Input
Amino acid sequence: MTVNGASKRKLVLVTGGAGYVGSVVVDELLARGFQVRVLDALLHGTVSSLLLSWANPQFEFIRGDVRDPAARGRAVQGVDAIVHLAAIVGDPACARDTELAHEVNLNGTVAMLEDAVGAGVERFVFASTCSNYGRTNGNSFADEEFELAPVSLYAETKVAAEAEVLQPKDGIVPTCLRFATVYGTSPRMRFDLTVNEFARDLALGAELVVFGEQFWRPYIHVRDAARAVASVLEAPREIVGGEVYNVGNTSENYRKLDIVDLLRKRLPDATVKFVHRDEDPRDYRVSFEKFAGGVGFKSKRSVADGIDEVIALVRSGLIDDPYAPRFRN
Ligand SMILES: NC(=O)c1ccc[n+]([C@@H]2O[C@H](COP(=O)([O-])OP(=O)(O)OC[C@H]3O[C@@H](n4cnc5c(N)ncnc54)[C@H](O)[C@@H]3O)[C@@H](O)[C@H]2O)c1
Output
C-alpha cells in the first residue's frame, strides 16, 4: 500500500494480543515493521506482557471483549489485517464454562469476521489447533486433509470456527493456522503446557506424574509460532488465501516419554511416575510439509531448546512462584 509514493505500514489488529502467544506475536510484528493494535479483555489479569511494546509509537492497545460490538467497531477501524487469537484456550478452561467457550471461540470469531468484512479488512488469520485431529492411526501423520475428530469442547469450537472463517466472503482473505502445542518463554508465561509444565516440575525437584506416556503430539516454540503468523501476513494473498496450514515441524512430534527422556538427560535425579493409560482420545502425529512448501516456513527451535530455556527460567528466580494460578489457563 502506498500513500503519496511512500509506503505505508500495514496496520494489524491482534485480538488476544496480551496472551501467551499474542504478546510474542505483537513483538515479532513490530520488529518486522508492522503497526499493531491489540484488542484484549485481559482475562488473565495483567498487562505486563505488553509493557515492552507500550512506548513504541506503532503500538496501540484497546481493552475490550470480542463479543462487544462497540469494542470490535473501534478495533477494526483502518485495519489491513486481523490475527485472531482471542479465545478461551485449552480443554480445562473450556470445560469450566462451556457457554463462555462457545460465545468467545465461535460466536466471537464469527462477529469479528463479519465486522472485518464490513470494515474492508484484507486478511483474517485465525488461530486454530492441531487438537482438531483428535487421534491419528498407527504410524500415520495428519496433514490438512486428515479427518477432523475433536474430542473436547475446545477443539469442537475451533473446528466450527474454522468452517465459518473459510466460507468465501467478498474482499477478505482468510487463513487458518492449526498450531502444534506451544512451549517456551513468553511475557505472559503459561506453565500449563506440557513442555513448560514438565520442565518446571523437574527443575524444581517436584515429582512429575505423567499420564499416557506413549501418546504423540507435535510441539512448536512460541517464537516460531509468532514467526509463522508474520510469514503468513507477508506471503502473497494468492498463496495463503483460503488455506489451512498445520504450523509446526514434522520432526518435532514427540511422545510424553520422549520429553521426559530429554529432561532426564539434563536432570538425572528427576523423579517421574508413569501412569499408564491404554486409551487417550488425543494421540496425534502431524505433518507440517504444506506450510514448509507453500510459505517456506521452517521452525528454528526444538523442544530440547525449550526445555533448556524453561529450566533456566524457573531456576533463575525471575518468577517468584511458577505455580501461581496466573501462569495457567
Ligand atoms: N498455546 C498453545 O499451545 C496453542 C496451541 C494451539 C492453538 N493455540 C491458539 O492460540 C491462541 C492464543 O493462545 P494462548 O496460548 O496465547 O492463550 P492465552 O489464554 O494466553 O491468550 C488468549 C488471550 O485472549 C484473551 N481473550 C480471551 N477471551 C477474550 C475475549 N472475549 N475478548 C478479548 N480477548 C479475549 C485473553 O485475555 C488472553 O490474553 C488461541 O486462539 C489458542 O486457541 C494455542
Remarks:
- The radius of gyration is 19 Å.
- Residues 1-5 have pLDDT under 50 and may be disordered.
- The chain has twelve helices and 14 strands.
